[in-house]
Automatic annotation (TrEMBL):
Annotated InterPro entries: DNA_glycosylase (IPR011257), Endonuclease-III-like_CS2 (IPR004036), Endonuclease3_FeS-loop_motif (IPR003651), Endouclease-III_FeS-bd_BS (IPR004035), HhH-GPD_domain (IPR003265), HhH_base_excis_C (IPR023170), HhH_motif (IPR000445), MIG/MutY (IPR044298)
Protein's organism: Vidua macroura
CDD domains: ENDO3c, NUDIX_DNA_Glycosylase_C-MutY
SMART domains from the UniProt entry: ENDO3c, FES
UniProt keyword annotation of Iron-sulfur present: yes
Cofactor(s) needed for function: [4Fe-4S] cluster
Gene Ontology CC terms, in alphabetical order: mitochondrion; nucleus
Name of the protein: Adenine DNA glycosylase
Biological process, per Gene Ontology: base-excision repair; mismatch repair
Family: Belongs to the Nth/MutY family.
Catalysis performed (reactions): Hydrolyzes free adenine bases from 7,8-dihydro-8-oxoguanine:adenine mismatched double-stranded DNA, leaving an apurinic site
Function field: Adenine glycosylase active on G-A mispairs.
Alphabetical keyword list: 4Fe-4S, DNA damage, DNA repair, Glycosidase, Hydrolase, Iron, Iron-sulfur, Metal-binding, Mitochondrion, Nucleus
Amino acid sequence: APAPPPARHLFSDPAEVEALRRNLLAWYDRCKRDLPWRTLAATELDADRRGYAVWVSEIMLQQTQVATVIHYYNRWMQKWPTLQALAQASLEEVNELWAGLGYYSRGKRLQEAARKVVSELAGRMPRTAEDLQKLLPGVGRYTAGAIASISYGQATGVVDGNVIRVLCRLRCIGADSSSPAVIDRLWDMANVLVDRSRPGDFNQALMELGATVCVPKSPLCRECPVKQHCQAWRRKLFGKAPPVPDVEDCGVGDCPLCPPATEPWDSSLGVTNFPRKAAKKPPRVMRTATCVLERRGCHGAPEYLIVQRPSSGLLAGLWEFPSLPLAQDLQEEKEREELADHLQAWMGQPVAAKGLQFIGEVIHIFSHIHQTYVVYSLYLDGDVTLDPALSPSRWVTEDEFHASAVSTAMKKV
């Protein structure tokens, strides 16, 4: 069995825990950002509407910066102010509003869960983190804890990327912060720390601290309201202690939370020694041929063909210009031929590879894919009948294209 972590990694002093809570909440009351979901959660008296407002924000904020989310959140809540309104929307409407926000399956799962609440739970949101996670698709441990604590006052902790960074620095946790064993310890800590009388505010304060002060690079340590509780800060100030086991050194070689011996403290990094993460796998490299098919519309304006992606997988259900994944190191002539064959299946008539005009390349970085779109264009003179047996497709004007559920990558194209 792995060795238990020494007490210095934990929050075992009740007086320290209480002081940390008090200092962090006082800072939050003074310095918290004015965000629309906080305003809604604070003013909405109906518990289900309050839970819904927080839920939407937490789903949108996954992997997405606050500044980007605010606009989408305001549009969403204006269009679907209640669970019931969202449950009645179509997936196409959801995708259209979500377009550009990324990680598109989030919107789909959010709507699926709203429909489940309306049809199976009598329109009543689950009230505990355990039930939220068990009953709602797309709601994991963190999101469930955030909704339950902020909306319903459950004294449960939360652990997201910001909280991981704060806790690892507070307690000099240098083991791989993405490992299940370390994540479990961090959840234990979060549940010990959470303020019982203001759990939602405390959790938001901890996340706010990580987002605005205890940031990944160049943290604002002197402005931190809990720096006196931070072991990484003390180590930065006073350097390595004498060779006696103390707060800086566990004194044991197999501590599951200490940095590995091969990665000792780097004094030039200070508190940013923590957290430590495993090296990321390099993104998968992909190339895709994409053709912008253009025709003259009935009113004289140009129209462009877009087709719908499959209902599962990357960018599920979104619309795009006809596209074809390419093998690596394919010669341009062969790329044109394969794309021409692909377009011929759509149009039901021969397409000359030489007629495809090369426009350029567009690079788009997904979380795990380095995607290059090789962009061609083809102007069609005359009527074209599309095969109805293939994926859904339609002709759109430029304005209609931008109003459709298309990805940021296709807007680049």
